[in-house]
Amino acid sequence: MRSATPRVCFTAVFSAGWTLGRTDHHAPEAMVITELVRRATTVTEKWEATEVTGAEDAVNADLGRPAPLPGMPGSELWGNVQLTLSAQARADAEQYRADRARVARLRYLKENLYNDPEMLLLDHLDRHPQDIGTVDIATFQRLSRSLRLGGQWWYPLLDCLETLSSELPARHGDRYAMKLLLKAFKDTLPELIDRHGLRDLADDVLGNPGGTTEHPQQ
């Protein structure tokens, strides 16, 4: 049965009783089982798989109250369930909980520590007080700036270039994305072209300085 933990399900064993009103249904037992599972699932899907005891109690609290079967006046259904987890399901659930806690901790550290160079520095000094006279503050400032601006600007920009490259015909996209970057460097900081050994590539991709700009064909 579904739990609130993705891809991890409870194993359920039901016992139930019912009374039926007048019905022409050719297989009333199948209808009873369907309704029993439906009622139980509306409860179990709200519980994490690791909380199997609490989920079982909650399901039994609901199934212990007789309720009419849909579309069958005069009928009642009640039951009891025993929920368990297989060894593999329990291991998967524990791993999912640990992964979720780790991601939450990393997100908390990013928002409250790594985005603030002063807090990052204080955290380091708190862990390593012997470094108070030798620590390089600029290192923490650069790391903080890289994390903050990387998420806000650089990663979205690189995603944009990757999308441009993938949506255009083969080799057109990569060349056009490269042309945009090289032209920006050549127009604003041409010394970077030579410093990083990109002069031949820039001349090949951009052509003559006075030439016209190509536009890729869709």
How would you sum up this structure, described in words?
This protein is mainly α and 218 residues long. Helix content is 60%, strand content 8%. It is built from 8 helices and 2 strands, in the order βααβαααααα. It has helices at residues 28-44, 52-63, 87-114, 117-127, 137-167, 172-188, 190-195, 199-206; strands at 11-19, 76-84. Strands 1-2 form a two-stranded antiparallel ribbon. Helix 5 packs across helix 6 (172-188). The chain is elongated, with a radius of gyration of 31 Å. It starts with 10 loop residues before the first strand and ends in a 12-residue tail after the last helix. 14% of the residues are buried. Residues 210-218 have low confidence and may be disordered.
Labels describing this entry:
single chain; 218 residues; two-stranded antiparallel sheet; 8 helices
Please tell me how large the radius of gyration is: 31 Å
Largest sheet: 2 strands, antiparallel
Q: How many β-strand stretches?
A: 2
Given helix and strand content, the structural type is mainly alpha
Helices, by number, come to 8
Low-confidence stretches: 210-218
